[in-house]
Design goal:
This protein is an alpha/beta fold. The protein is built from eight helices and seven strands, in the order H-E-H-E-H-E-E-H-E-E-H-H-E-H-H. Strands 1, 2, 3, 4, 5, 6 and 7 form a seven-stranded mixed sheet that branches. Helix 4 crosses helix 5. Its EC number is 3.6.1.9. This is dTTP/UTP pyrophosphatase. It is an enzyme of class 3 (hydrolase). It is found in: Cytoplasm.
């Protein structure tokens, strides 16, 4: 649908996430992948979407001097927000187990911010989805972390994997946001940018 509008533009996706890359493929939006290292440090005073907004903009800053007129850069960040704490990606097995255990039997928010940057324009959007976990046993959590190694996933889990199939009883908001990108909002924003 956007192919005609995109013919004079190049979309750069600054994400190493295979899930985000697949979303763009499924949306039929061709992207150039360009991932640059960024130190994802934020002030402890930031809460919820303030964190993801800040990080998605921060990830764009390393590209600012290189962007050409016809390019649109997309950067994003996802966190799991539970009990007034942001959970990023677990650094090891023990931390993944601890994260999932803290989510068991409760609900939490998955917040994603997406930053669209061109040479003369920047827009940030964010989306929040509430996720409800059933009570999980220690054995189930151990099994999941051992077999699925969710170390590249915010909160230490992926909704589309085994743990989501057996443990998530309901969500309020976008499923795709929990996977890593509020696709409906990304599509809408790109369409608006390309039509302006």
């Amino acid at each position: 649908m956007l192919q005609e509008l995109l013919k004079n533009h190049e979309i750069i996706l600054a994400s190493g996430s295979p899930r985000r890359q697949k979303f763009f493929q499924d949306l039929e939006i061709p992207v150039k992948i360009d991932v640059r290292p960024v130190d994802e440090v934020f002030s402890e005073h930031l809460k919820k979407e303030e964190i993801t907004d800040f990080l998605s903009v921060l990830k764009s800053e390393v590209f600012l001097n290189d962007l050409k007129e016809n390019q649109i850069l997309i950067t994003s960040d996802t966190i799991v927000y539970n009990e007034a704490k942001a959970l990023g990606k677990p650094k090891d097995h023990a931390e993944a187990v601890k994260m999932i255990s803290s989510l068991s039997g409760k609900n939490h928010e998955v917040i994603t911010s997406v930053c669209f940057t061109s040479k003369n324009y920047q827009k940030v959007l964010n989306h929040s989805t509430r996720v409800y976990f059933s009570e999980l046993t220690e054995k189930e959590i151990e099994y999941y972390v051992t077999n699925f190694k969710p170390f590249d996933k915010a909160g230490g889990y992926a909704i589309q994997e085994w743990i989501g199939l057996i443990g998530i009883k309901k969500i309020e908001g976008s499923y795709f946001n929990v996977v890593g990108l509020p696709t409906h909002e990304v599509y809408k924003t790109l369409k608006e940018m390309l039509n302006s």
